[in-house]
Every structure is written in C-alpha cells, then in structure tokens.
Amino acid sequence: TGSSVTVAGAAAANPCLTAPNRWGVGGVVGVIQGRPFGTAGWEATLSNITASLSVTATGENNVGGVIGMAQENVTLSTITSAGNVSGNNYVGGIVGQWENRDSGSTVANGTGLVKTSGTITLNGTDDAGGIAGAIFGENISITSSGARSGVAVTTPAGGYLGGFAGVIASNAFAGSSVISDCFNEASVTGGAASLS
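User: That's the sequence. What structure does it adopt?
Assistant: Structure tokens below.
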C-alpha cells in the first residue's frame, strides 16, 4: 500500500519449489520492484530472510534462491539462502536478475547477502552466479556479501558464470555501481567464461 513495500523476517523451508512457465521465480519473492520509471518516492525492502529450499524453473528466466528479479530502488539486507537453484537464463543463488536502470537518485543497496550451500545451474546461455545471475544498471551498491565454499556454479550449456555474479554491466545512465568488501568461495565450472 502507498509508496513502499517491506518484507522482513520471513523464512522459507521446503524440499523443492518447481515452477514451470513462469517469469521471475524466487524461493520467497518472484519479482520485487521499488521505484517504477518516473515515479518518485517509491522503494522496496527485503530484509532478515532465510531461505532453505531448492528452486527449479524449467525453461524460465530470472530465477533466484530468494528473489527472481529485483528492479529499481530495492534494498536487500541480511539474506541467507541454501539449496539448489536451476533455470534457463539469469540464475542466481540469491537473486536471478538485479537491475537498476532508472536515472536520477534511484539507488539499489545490498548488504549481508550470503549463499551458504547448493548448486546453481544455468541451463540456457545467459549468466549465473553465486549471489546474482546478472547485475545491470547504475547506482547499485553491494557490500559484505558472497558465496561460501558449499556453493557450486555450473552449466551443461554455455554462458557467463561467476562465483559472485555471472555478469555485471552498466548502461548509458549516469552513476556508478560499487561492489566492496565481498567474498567468493564457490566453485565455478563450465560456460563461455567462468570467473571466480
């Protein structure tokens, strides 16, 4: 209701979440959106989340252990995820695709995002990572986050893989994105480019 959305203190624990034919599949939230383009004063927050489950989305994009897609002015804090995650494109241990493409003062923040265990499997050709499959846009700040040694990122096909993120890309909008004081202990195998 109004101009903000907050989800705090949630826990998800199931053996497996299977979601065929969906766009934006997450163990807790499919899509979380803060500020829509041109809308001032909106924000979305997801905090103090523990997700211990496997997420399988056959043939689908934007698949995450906690969030399928995070868009515009989203704050993520103190989120822990354990379990396998499998999808077509943009597959991540915490979030499948995180984008902040709006210009201006919109800022997306992440702190304390930790993938503790599980295999992240990219079945398509676009990006998988221990924390995020893909991070796109400007003004994204991520700190004190990463994938632990019980995490594996792999693909039977191709694409960009990373222990932290498969790809991090800016666009034409002004601003910069910063990832600092983060870590990676995950194993990374296969793909067009494997970066650990």
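Confidence is low (pLDDT under 50) at residues 1-7.
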